[in-house]
Amino acid sequence: MMSIGEGVVYMLIALLGLLIGSFLNVVVHRVPRHESILYPASHCPQCGHGLRPWENIPVLSWIWLRGRCHDCGSPIVWRYPVLELLTAVLSVVVVWRLGFSGTLLPALALTWILLALTMIDLETHLLPDRITKPGILFGLLLNGSALFWPGVALTSPADALLGVFLGYGSLWVLAVAYYRMSGRDGMGGGDLKLLGMVGAWLGWQAVFLTLFIAALGGGMVAVTYLLRGKGRDYAMPFGPYLALGAWLMLLWPQAILSGYLHLLGT
Ligand SMILES: [Zn+2]
């Protein structure tokens, strides 16, 4: 049974998640367009009018405005309320799982980065360098901090460094092999950097299982598409599956590892 105090804390985390989700919407919209995420203030991309405070409230404004711009009436994509709600829910799950430990803030940050990348990949089939490259750097700095001050690192500095090379390298090998066999590019360079980023944050051990979960999830979706007779050439973004795998490895590494070993029959 949850105490009132705990309930209040989770409410506050959910509110924080809604606000972060609102910011992530700006990131998802602007980064692929090479726009600044700080300037100008939020505005309608169609008519350009600046959002009034009451038009900028997560989820509620979207419902209030019935998904349309107040001034020009052009539709506001569903991604806005969905990403805000998703960020709130996943942030609450991270706090519920990790509690108020030193690794909470890094875990939340990684969750938010993965959410932004997932949405961008779904919309544009791209994973922008502007997020993955600093993401790799931040992961290395975060885990490098363990050399001076343990407590916030998610893995050891050596495991993180190895994770970058293994994450990037393993997909590079797969991509080259696929290209040799099919003569087509199967994976974008963004996928390689994303898995390198996962390695930087969670260590090389997590790279394998992230890839395993992503292949499992992506493979099942691919099979469904083939069974429904949709084209083989349907370009499926792999980033969301990598992001999901990484997020599950962030929160349930032991359960996933034993599940994996169980599948292998050991
Ligand atoms: Zn408008």
UniProtKB/TrEMBL annotation:
Q: InterPro entries annotated for this entry?
A: Peptidase_A24A_bac (IPR014032), Prepilin_IV_endopep_pep (IPR000045), Prepilin_pept_A24_N (IPR010627), Prepilin_peptidase/N-MTase (IPR050882)
Describe the reaction catalysed, as an equation. Typically cleaves a -Gly-|-Phe- bond to release an N-terminal, basic peptide of 5-8 residues from type IV prepilin, and then N-methylates the new N-terminal amino group, the methyl donor being S-adenosyl-L-methionine
What GO cellular component is one of the record's annotations? Answer: plasma membrane
Cite the Prepilin type IV endopeptidase peptidase domain residue spans from the record: 109-222
Positions of transmembrane segments: 7-28, 76-98, 104-122, 134-154, 160-179, 200-226, 238-263
**Gene3D superfamilies under this entry?**
1.20.120.1220
What the entry lists under Pfam families is as follows:
A24_N_bact (PF06750), Peptidase_A24 (PF01478)
Q: Which domain of life is it from?
A: Bacteria
Start and end residues of each Prepilin peptidase A24 N-terminal domain? 15-97
GO biological process terms, semicolon-separated: methylation; signal peptide processing
Could you say which EC number(s) this protein's record lists?
A: 2.1.1.-, 3.4.23.43
Major location category of this protein: membrane
Topology in membrane: Multi-pass membrane protein
Keyword annotations for this protein, in alphabetical order, are:
Cell inner membrane, Cell membrane, Hydrolase, Membrane, Methyltransferase, Multifunctional enzyme, Protease, Transferase, Transmembrane, Transmembrane helix
One MF term in the entry's GO annotations: methyltransferase activity
* Entry's localization field: Cell inner membrane; Cell membrane
* Protein purpose: Plays an essential role in type IV pili and type II pseudopili formation by proteolytically removing the leader sequence from substrate proteins and subsequently monomethylating the alpha-amino group of the newly exposed N-terminal phenylalanine.
The family this protein is said to belong to: Belongs to the peptidase A24 family.
- Annotated protein name in UniProt: Prepilin leader peptidase/N-methyltransferase
